[in-house]
Batch of 4 targets.
Target 1
Amino acid sequence: MQDGNSTTVTGTLERLRGRMLIGGQWRGASGGGTIPVINPADGRRLSEMPDGTPEDVNEAVAAARRAFENPDWARLSPTDRERLLHRLADLLAAHAGEFAELETLDNGKPLKLSSRVDVPGAVDYLRYIAGWATKLEGSTLDLSFPRSADGGYHAYTRREPVGVVGAIIPWNYPLMMAAWKLGPALATGCTVVLKPASETPLTALRLGELVQQAGYPDGVVNVICGRGSVLGQALSRHPDVDKIAFTGSTGVGREVGHSVVDRMARVSLELGGKSPVIVLPDADAKAAIAGAAAAIFANQGQACTAGSRLYVHRSRFDEVVEGVAARAARMRIGAGMDPDTQMGPLVSDRQLETVAGYVDIGRSEGASVVTGGQRLDREGFFYQPTVLTGMAQSARVVQEEIFGPVLVALPFDDPDEAVALANDSDYGLAASIWSNNLTAVNRLAPRIRAGTVWVNCHNMLDPAMPFGGFKLSGHGREMGRAVLDLYTETKSVCVAY
Ligand code: TAP
């Protein structure tokens, strides 16, 4: 161990310092600049990444275009694409401990979470999507167009890779988001320019090394680092990028969407959320309390699907809210590398300011702080898990995404009111319903305007389940078979005979 990190991770940090992957070469930014990478558990500098420029974007996109047209990649059989993805998944699994540690140091999340969810989740997803490489299908079509007596037309459709993909990802699940973008792109034969968030570039860069080790031709995957407002914007506006796959805030997603639509490139957007957790009168209180607490406090509340609005039937309101608050107060907060930690720091001082600011706004809107409501008096970016009650449904803390460990709780009197409150949001990413009444659940689920509705669980994401948002939560569905639509074009071929 050195500096509290394993020697493997210390070596990786040294090797990756100030470098990014373009066209198979590891190099610094063309302007020579770097940006510090901060450990959120102590606020100290962990590493540095390149401060990439639009010139670097041009080079990465050109490398991805060359790779897309290179027969070594373009003519690779589906079986070989599947095999390569399995090799990448195997390499990731073989380095699971190192990746979990890197993710925790970079993002702050508890090592338990990165080693049990982030890394295995990325491996499982790569394995799942590898199987689709050999199952891309078109259809044969009977045409009605008249021709000679014994002649006709034979028509069929093909699925072809969309081309060069610009993938822009956030800091909350950096490795998993990288896998969600790289997996389907590589399964379908696309090439990628991946831009991780500035707060958390490390696991994406290390994954770039594994991509090379797995044997992908140079330029099939490029990992570039730099500021979103410079590099991300240049990538999303680049005329030779065929598709942008973006996960991040609704504000930036809207900007990206505009620039992409202007040039008619393809785009998928996975954006923000303000997901309701609805507890019906007959719910198992113990399960609902544990579920509601995990729904908001996992990953420090920095999850797009976080159950950040709790609506409880008035008859059970005090019991459930007190139960969630008691769990919050008991949570062990500390550095993610400490094995006892249940909640780590927020990702950055900026995020800490945002979360603390929202709780102050909540107080000014009349909210009572049932538990939490303070930053921790220690180095690093720590904030207490917080539960607010007593504000109106129209309050900003109820309507706006906080992206931190802050839960707002409100009572309801009947199912119609629960539906109205749950749907009273600009977002529509996910929701959960807690109840043992099958009829009530089946009546409620279709009425919730969200891309995923969980029943008696929350945050259950599986590679087989399509995932994405209604309303301002985004556009397109990742995972499941549905993701193939995002990374392929359908071509009709019509043959006269
Ligand atoms: P953003 O600020 O939107 O950043 C996301 C990514 O976009 C980062 O890589 C960022 O780069 C880049 N970016 C910033 N400005 C850009 C621009 N003008 N053009 C192109 N790219 C730009 O979000 P965040 O704060 O990192 O992440 C939190 C948000 O992501 C939350 O709203 C959350 O709900 C959402 N999220 C959604 C999902 C799904 S699946 N729906 C999953 C995770 C997170 P820099 O880091 O360099 O600024």
Note: The mean pLDDT is 97.
Target 2
Amino acid sequence: MSSEAKMSLGNILPTTNKTVLDRYLRLTIPDQKTQVLYVWIDGSGEYLRAKTRTISFVPKSPTELPIWNFDGSSTGQAEGSNSDVYLHPVTLYKDPFRLGDNKIVLCETYKHNKKPADTNHRHHCLEVMKRAADQHPWFGMEQEYTLLDTDNHPFGWPKNGFPGPQGPYYCGVGASKVFGRDIVEAHYKTCLYAGIQISGTNAEVMPAQWEFQVGPCEGITMGDDLWLARFLLHRVAEDFNVNVTLDPKPIPGDWNGAGMHTNFSTKAMRDPNGIVEIEKAIDKLSRHHIRHIKAYDPKEGKDNERRLTGFHETSSIHDFSAGVANRGCSIRIPRGVAEEKQGYLEDRRPSSNADPYLVSEVLVRTICLNE
Ligand code: ADP
Ligand code: MN
Ligand code: MN
Ligand code: MN
Ligand code: MN
């Protein structure tokens, strides 16, 4: 069971009346007051936190926004005796909830001694992306996730049993085939509104499991857009009184797990006969399997161990493999890429709860920088 499922108390969470809320949200605010939601990754490296401040101008760039701080002892990021952690605004998005000139700003976290906080993996990722910028690394990440009821039981599943076996659900349509499409649709729109490079969505193999794709994004934008898309997903689902888990194997047994397939290319791979570069990259990846597995979930492989079994469209965590159109391999070359002899590769190993900054960084280190 996932940690969320274990925490299940069987209680129904309180709800409020959204129609009444709407009356207040319609109030017009005197000019030049902007609400800016500062979002950051907490000490778990998996979950997000956010708080708002009023700004007396309309920010056009994150650098115009003040550095802020928070109580790191409440987020697993500092001791109580020295608890201030700093928020450095890095990427600005339009706010799809508050609308107007209001903003969401993704932040990096820094300790009192000006060093990046332990789960601030963006800091090093950005350095690596700058060093490889001339190779124009592109990423496309496929974020799988599972919707849970407020008792943390999979959304729409019978309370005392299981739905019928997998088969009809993937890309399904119909009330008994897919559960929670309202959330998927709402989330898709919020991503487009905010300015995230979301490229699509689909219902997954396990009922109540879904996927959205972000990309292609160059360099650091991949991690930024994916983290903010995750924030928007949790926030939208909250409005529907539904939980989201990124656990890679939320339901043990004959149910697909959740991954974050990462599609990757450099300019040389996208150019004619780039297949030669793709094959070189696969050879480099084959020599660093364990290093990549360690970067592909927040517990250095322990979470992914439950998912990468060699069954349910995965490869074994213990072996490296590559193949054309083979979904049981670590690395898949899409059929179209093999035919056109140019394009990208798909690394199928990252877990759904992996940090996209760590995943994109290690790919660039291995493939572009030969480290
Ligand atoms: P799958 O067939 O594995 O389900 P998806 O359609 O879900 O693939 O996702 C493919 C992802 O690959 C998308 O996010 C897309 O933006 C990305 N992508 C497409 N071309 C490239 C490329 N040249 N380099 C990196 N990513 C790419
Ligand atoms: Mn306080
Ligand atoms: Mn996909
Ligand atoms: Mn998928
Ligand atoms: Mn895929």
Note: Residues 221-239 form the longest helix (19 residues).
Target 3
Amino acid sequence: MLKRFISYYKPHKKLFIIDMICAFLIASIDLSVPMLSRYALNDLLPKNQFRTFFLFILMLLGLYLIRSVFQYIVDFWGHILGVRMEYDMRRDLFKHLQSLSFRFYDKTRTGHIMSRMVNDLNEITELAHHGPEDLFLSLIMLIGAFFAMLFMEWRLALAVYIFIPFLVWFAIKQRTKMSRGFKNVKKKIANVNAQLESSISGIRVSKSFANEEHEMEKFTFGNKEFRASKDVAYKNMAIFSVGMGFITKILNLVVIGFGGFLIMKGTMDIMDLLAFIMYVNAFLQPIRRLSNFVQQFESGMTGFERFTELMEIEPLIKDKLGAVDLKNVTGNIDFNNVTFSYNDHEKVLNNINLNINAGRTLALVGPSGGGKTTLCHLIPRFYEVDEGMITIDGKNIKDIKVKSLRSNIGLVSQDVFLFAGTIKDNIMYGDISASEERLIEAAKNAEIHDFIMGLPDGYDTNVGERGIRLSGGQKQRISIARVFLKNPPILILDEATSALDNETEIKIQRALEKLSKGRTSLVIAHRLSTIKNADEIVVITEEGIKEKGTHEQLLASEGIYEKLYKAQFKGYIPDQI
Ligand code: ADP
Ligand code: MG
């Protein structure tokens, strides 16, 4: 993990080196000031060299000015370095999230991802900047002050060193506690975010059930847990600060007491003690500094750990070595003994054999839960088949580049998702480089052009978050226009007309028929009247494929399809088929 963290410094080597050099110079100045002061007080003053003494003080002032410049560089550019690294990490995480497959999103809550993207990475800036700089600066200061004290008065120095193991023990112990605490805080805030995301996306539902209070309760539960986790973390942080502060105060007392004793005995003079005390503080400063930033450090590091956890999840579906592009697709699709399950204990598809000839339409019908949607999702490799294989024009889809495979398939499903943005943006999603003419042609084909032109802003109308201002049928037609623009040789229509009223359905049906012309199509429809003309109809239930044939053949065979069809014709659908 540390290796990964360090790798983020690499693109910003220059900033890092400047930061480190300035930190080094600051430490050098801080270490030399006590020595210089001691020299001035000891050697210049007694010789009545006031002029030199005054010049000396001016020189110190100059030194402090220079130090301020270095400090500015460290504080400003150092943080800039952190910001750059945070930016890079967020970019990489987003890219990685784009690559993860359906299985990952099936089991991950959006809020948890948001939390990592926003909260966890937020503190990385501090860690990235202060981590190495503090370590480096503190180390130099510690070593420098250590030898300076030893050199000045070894007895007094030893008295100070006795405290070090104690300090270190306390710091490590308390630090571990804090680390655990802040990790817990991160988990809890992720839960709060997840709940927030769910409640806000479902706000219309909770309002329709007048369940706002229930939502409040659910939210409060997580919020309280978050509060409790912070209580613990801050308690440990306070114990840490207080403990460190107390130990250093005692240390100062010891130095003054023991130093005073040495002065009385005549083995040390008062100027030495003054300089020594300055060194003790130069020695304690890095320790205090570390203690101040331990919290940031812990937060940042746990944040980075959580970032790494996500980054290490392998995308399940990716190009295999030697994967090829799909060229000149005719669109012959074959399922050979395909078996698939979402989990270990239940097979959704078992030994499925299907063939859709290029340019033909195959309709899938059957009870809900029979695996129709699942079957559709296997063709663009949203999920990987467990056994058997699917081929397009004789090529195993696993040997085709994912991007190439998916760009040849158009999918229209029941729940349409529109991105925040304009209608134009949403249709153009089918082909981002399409011309205005093609955009309009696609909209016309999808029978949505007239509606769009009737809007005050036309194609530039904002659809609002989740396209809430459009009706189901309008959204559906926008999604169909999107696929017209994409113009793929293979088409999958998964209950594209199910949730619509009759009039819209006729319009959409017309658009879909136009769309499937000349393409290999796989159509799932609830209403059987819409698939009568399919070249082949396949009845699929939880037990697998039950019937195959044309509408007329299936009616004649008096099986499941015939029962279903008659039932719909009469206006009711039986529970059992
Ligand atoms: P259909 O489209 O015919 O109604 P589905 O393919 O949606 O059927 O579902 C088939 C079975 O797989 C159902 O039992 C459903 O609960 C299950 N299922 C569907 N999607 C998932 C998923 N993402 N994770 C786990 N199980 C799923
Ligand atoms: Mg379905």
Note: Strands lie at 333-340, 349-356, 361-365, 387-392, 395-396, 409-413, 490-494, 520-524, 536-541, 544-549.
Target 4
Amino acid sequence: MTTYDFKKIEKKWQENWENEKVFANYNEEHPKYYVLEMFPYPSGKIHMGHVRNYSIGDVVARYKKMQGFNVLHPMGWDAFGLPAENAAIKHGIHPDVWTTQNIQDMKEQLDTLGLSYDWDREVTTCKPDYYKWTQWLFLQFYHKGLAYKKESRVNWCPSCETVLANEQVVNGQCERCDSAVGKKMLNQWYFKITDYAEDLLADINLLEGWPNKVKIMQENWIGKSEGAEIEFEIQDFEKSLKVFTTRPDTIFGATYMVLAPEHPYVTELVKDTEYQEKVKAFITKLQHMSDIERTSTDTEKEGLFIGRYCINPLSGQKIPIFIANYVLVDYGTGAIMAVPAHDQRDLDFARKYNIEVLPVIRPEESGDTFTIDTEAYDEEGIMINSGEFNGLRSAEAFNKVCEALEKGETGKKTINYRLRDWLLSRQRYWGTPIPIVYCDRCGIVPVKEENLPVELPLDVKFTGAGLSPLTTSESFIYTPCPQCGETAKRETDTMDTFVDSSWYFLRYADAHNENLPFAKEAGDYWMPVDQYIGGVEHAILHLLYSRFFTKVIKDLGLIDIKEPFKNLLTQGMVLKDGAKMSKSKGNTVSPEEIIEKYGADTARLFVLFAAPPERDLEWSDQGVEGCFRFLNRVWRLVEEALENNKLNLPSREMTKQDKDLQYMIHKTIKKVTEDIEERFNFNTAVSGIMELVNDLYKYKEIDKSTINGLLFKQGIETVISLLSPFAPHMTEELWHKMGNTTSVYLSQWPKYDPKAIVRDEVEIVLQINGKVKEKIMIPSNLDKEGLERIALENEKVQRFIEGKEVKKVIAVPKKLVNIVVK
Ligand code: ANZ
Ligand code: ZN
């Protein structure tokens, strides 16, 4: 008997699968199935999180292949980004060299896991053959008015020296380096994702196979608010002030107005007044505060009166105008009507600055003398202090107020979204160059499609200072204007790397296309991704951007689908000692070490067995040992059976033990299939297989002469097949030892026989015209219909009723069937 030499076996089958193209092999006669794991950033080393993510995907891919699907399971590299550039600054290595080396290293590590990727479709976002199409897509967006440039106040990380999207600012800090994020005015490129806000929101309904929590996060991020835009006349000023409110019903309670300090009116309103200096000082003070900080309920409300007044369009009241920290310039209209009685932030502010608090809605159960103390009343109720609207329910008043405003042309219902346009410019080298040229004569000119890709130059200096390193490359900057031919300058900013990952799943469908990002036919065939798997940290940004890209690409006529990812699985973290495994915590276990010691099959089995995929997984050395022992046990089971010739024993009449084993085999097939198929409960699937292995051991111990060789063989083959998505190398080896000459993944996933999993039987009688003709054993849970069928198909019964007319069949479950004939 040979021992389980995982090193030899794993290498052997990895090479074999690659050479025989077992997985890079397509047959369009079968239904397609596209399984995808989020592609990694090539940091140079895989960690346990990767092992978990890819093992989950690999189970799905192998399982679906055995189920007869035409499976697409590709892999690639999200290869642009800051770490490569930082390495260049620090160690003087070119980002391209650094990245290419890391990809090579990581690919070797991935190969040791035996993942069923089709590497022929590998996508690397930093290669010109890929970013050419990222640029091409940018141009299509540009021509549709969905990519535009504007001067704006952007989040600026002083340490990374680049702008950040709102999404990359976490609690006021840079997502990457944790520095406090400030604000800066810059002229930047944007994608107009807000044009798709409504579609992105509405189509969340189509995402049936997504976790609810992710759908809610997307919904909150888009942040739809229904309300009204109301115009307040400003005294002695030619323009009126527009505010956005979700509570037009509270308009009579607006006792002051607030402008964001950065609101364009502010300087004009204080121009010739004593307030000018104070306002300036206030704005300077706020510059270092993030939006989150400013609007947090914990932050002290601060502001000042600017010496001007508005007129309430419905009540005619004169109300003072303030600027304050808690109103943001880029939400709504950048100005609010403040209603302290019904909004907590306004109330805190009003109490601090001694502003009137006027309740205009009272709870139904309270009287007209309702007052507000330190807590705002933000619910619905009955209107008070609101002129003609008094006595109405506030929900009703909402509409009535809007109607009144519309009549007076001072307001209308509107919808506001929290979602902002996507800022994509980065002052960075290692990203996709934005294919735009600035010409003194022609202005902003897109690069001609036939001149794509705009390639990254090599003669750049990585100084680490402010501007994009591309500004240091003479060869890059100067170029003839695509329109007039005069010398012009290229855009030196590159794209946010989220742009690269917003369409990579489409490129896999047709990875070598030289004329388009992908052929429509290929896209329509493979998309949507049937199963997408990745970390929940991408629940907002990456998924939202990918959904947006897919929708635009559809509107460009390049594909027919509306949503890119049909089913989404967000896997949990890998923990050790209760904390997330991470380099900074120093609690990592290296996949290389585990694979070296136990083999990839054990590593895979452990991460799949130790917890359901969506839950966090606690690392356990004993758990790994246990999985290793189990695989050894399976190995010995098969080896011994082959050695002792147990599989060649003749079959014969079934004994009780045979029947028990047969039952277990079919029950396990059913369980494992359902666990994988319906719930991705890989852990319970594996424990089901473990039980079957135990049963086979027990069965093998019974007297050799009484073993049913055919059945035993079926049991062993079932274990091999069911285990093959989880521990692929060992099972492939055993499959071949069993005498098969082609891959287990080209074989059929086992099917259970529904009859074999019915355990209890009862005896019933079959009667013809009330006379007992036969007694038979049947499954006890058979219903009336099943009973009737069995009775009528019974041989003896058929002889009796031959040539006669069946008038009626009376079936009494568990007892009898009476057939009335004439
Ligand atoms: C009057 C009012 C009365 C409000 C009331 C609320 C309650 P969401 O749901 O997030 O859309 N608001 C509007 N623009 C703002 C800005 N740029 N910065 C800070 N706050 C702003 O919130 C909409 C509400 O937030 C708006 O409705 C406005 O306050 C405030 F009893 O207007 B409300
Ligand atoms: Zn020009």
Note: The first strand starts at residue 32 and ends at 37.
